[in-house]
Amino acid sequence: MADNARAKRLADLIREVVAKKLQRGIKDPRLGTHVTITDTRVTGDLREATVFYTVYGDDEQRAEAAAGLESAKGVLRSAVGAAAGVKFTPTLTFVADALPDTAKTIEDLLDKARASDEKVREVSAGASFAGDADPYKKPGEDDEDDEDDEDEDDSAR
User: Fold this and answer.
1) Cβ contacts of residue 19 below 8 Å, gap of 6+?
2) Rounded-to-integer distance, Cα 65 and Cα 107, Å
3) Which residues are 96's β-sheet partners?
4) How far apart (Å, rounded) are the C-alpha atoms in residues 84 and 40?
5) What DSSP element (H or E) covers 15?
6) Helical packing angle, 73-84 and 4-20, nearest 10°
7) N or C: less crowded end of the chain, CB within 10 Å?
8) Are 69 and 37 in contact (CB under 8 A)?
9) pLDDT tens-place string over residues 83-122
10) What whole-number distance in Å separates Cα of residue 56 and Cα of residue 38?
């Protein structure tokens, strides 16, 4: 079992090698310049690597890029093995990164929250306080009210 630092270094190396090979070494038109390697994770035994990628484009381009990465898997693994110099070259698994979709969902939710806040601001623009502007008691202000309450309690007895 390898330590986490070694797995992290290998993951970083795999990410760099795969990105460079996709940019310069693979002539597959399905991959082009719209594929970005975002992250790589390696198992503790250094046998399997998961490569996360994003594709700039529509669903059809994403499907083409996934097919292109699967067909180039052997070439990419060979390049990783030559660069890493480890006893066993990890198998590569390509997974589409959900980060852009998640970010878009969060942006949509933030836009809804901003719109809701703006509506509340518009409604409350001409409103006034239901009670005093400062509803909290301050020391020394309500001492005479307390004395009046005591007088009422004495008269009730």
Assistant:
1) 36, 37
2) 26
3) 53
4) 14
5) helix 4-20
6) 130
7) C
8) no
9) 988 889 999 999 988 877 788 899 999 999 999 999 988 8
10) 12
Reported residue count of the chain is: 157
pLDDT in tens, 32-78: 767 888 899 999 888 999 999 988 878 888 888 888 888 888 889 99
Helical (H) or strand (E) element with 39: strand 35-42
> Do residues 19 and 60 lie in contact, with contact meaning Cβ atoms separated by under 8 Å?
no
Residues 6+ apart with CB under 8 A from 20: none
The 8-class DSSP code of residue 146 comes to H
Residues whose CB falls within 8 Å of the CB of residue 88, separated by 6 or more in sequence, listed in order: 46, 47
Give the type of residue at 157: R
What global pTM score does this model have?
0.65
